[in-house]
Amino acid sequence: MYPLEGKVALVTGGSRGIGRAIAGRLAGDGAVVAVAYARDHTAATEVVERIRGDGGEAFAIQAELGRHGDAIALWTAFDQRIGAHAPGGGVDIIVNNAGIGRSADLASLTEEGFDEVFAVNVRAPFFIVREGLKRLRDGGRIINISSGAARLAMPEIIAYGSTKGALDTFTLNLARQLGPRGITANSVAPGIVDTDVNAGWLRGNPRAEAHAASLAALGRVGQPADIADIVAFLAGDDARWVTGRVIDATGGAGL
Predict the structure, then answer these.
(1) Domains parsed from the chain with CATH numbers
(2) What are phi and psi of 253, to 5 degrees?
(3) Sign of CA dihedral 117, 122, 123, 128
(4) What is the Cα–Cα distance from 137 to 173, expressed in whole angstroms?
(5) Which one, 73, 128, 180, 202, has least CB within 10 Å?
(6) Which PROSITE patterns match (predicted)?
(7) What is the DSSP string of 164-227?
(8) Rounded CA gap, 235 and 239, in Å?
(9) pLDDT for the residue 204
(10) How many CB atoms lie within 10 A of CB 126?
(11) Which residues are catalytic, by number?
């Protein structure tokens, strides 16, 4: 049984890390997945080939986020490709996963750095959804990848945490506005996850890994599949009565 059979999903930042895991899981559940990426064509192609090798269906689309017109460019690329994979077009699941971080505190963050992180993490999802509503079918799903940094004080990444707080507020308002169409909107907030982004300080460093694991009540570092499985639940019919929520996916960090 494939719970997402006949559905179409768009996953931004789908070429690596959490996005890669989400794309693979949704495809494994039967969805046709548009793997959106910014620059790494090779990585995106590898994701698509792996999905197809596992019997799923996916295609890659390129659009660099964080600049004006990025949402229109993304959906234009989607429209050009979707017909070959799902006749009739349209989308059922939008996963706003793409994001960037800035390791800077209040004193050291530049205006340019502030603008960039908000452009990618907040403005892009806002307009991706706005443009996507023309294609999103009734009963659809919007899933925004937030962060535990939105509820935990982390002054060293103050701008990043602020963007995720804004994303959660966006989610809340989407849930209220789109409820009459049967569309749910939820955020998933990971903690520390073993991805390429964290590899430089985490992998191969027993002390760093032990410290990261100690922050979670469940006593380990998160894996991309941990997050992908939660997204798959929210994308399916079992989550039809869940909307406007921030799902904590930190393993119990900060309890």
Answers:
(1) 8-242 (3.40.50.720)
(2) -70, 140
(3) positive
(4) 18
(5) 180
(6) ADH_SHORT (PS00061)
(7) HHHHHHHHHHHHHHHGGGT-EEEEEEE-SB-SHHHHHHHTT-HHHHHHHHHTSTT-S-B-HHHH
(8) 7
(9) 85
(10) 15
(11) 160
What is the CB neighbour count within 10 angstroms for residue 123? 19
Q: What is the DSSP letter of 239?
A: G
* CA nearest to 222, candidates 251, 242, 199: 251
Strand order, beta sheet including 91-96: 57-62, 32-37, 8-11, 91-96, 136-145, 184-190, 246-249
Residue 23 near residue 51 (C-beta atoms within 8 A): yes
User: First and final CA of the chain: distance in angstroms?
Assistant: 37
Mean pLDDT of each 10-residue bin along the chain, 255 residues long: 95 97 98 97 98 98 97 98 94 98 90 97 98 98 97 94 98 98 98 87 88 95 97 98 98 94
251 within 8 A of 217, measured Cβ to Cβ = yes
Q: What sign has the CA pseudo-torsion 228, 230, 233, 234?
A: negative
Task: Find where tokens 């793409």 sit.
Answer: 98
Residue 129: both structure tokens together: 């959804």
The candidate with the shortest Cα–Cα distance to 155, out of 108, 222, 210, is 108
What is the residue whose two structure tokens read 């999802």? 125
Q: What pLDDT is attached to residue 205?
A: 86
- Rounded distance, CA 188 to CA 246, Å? 6
The distance from CA 212 to its chain's CA centroid, rounded to whole angstroms, is 22
pTM for the model: 0.96
Tell me how long the chain is.
Answer: 255
Q: Count of alpha carbons within 13 Å of 81, Cβ hemisphere only?
A: 21
